[in-house]
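Let's practice the habit of predicting before peeking. Look at the sequence and jot down your guess about where helices and strands might fall. Then scroll down.
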Amino acid sequence: MTSKKIEAKDYFLPCPFCGDSEMEIVESLFEDSSDCYELVVYCVCGAQGPAAKTEDEALLKWNSRVKS
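Done guessing? Here is the structure:
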């Protein structure tokens, strides 16, 4: 698994579980796809966003959650 620290210019909403705003985009292998790595936004508390094919898509999915 590789990870990439986000740059300051990137904007992530804070984690809905711990409130942290320093996220990483990590590459993960998903069980339902054979040898298919996808990108997810990952928080130090263990929360992660939905799988995406690109960094921009991962960012958009992380920021597109339902507000309570």
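How did you do? The chain has a mean pLDDT of 80.
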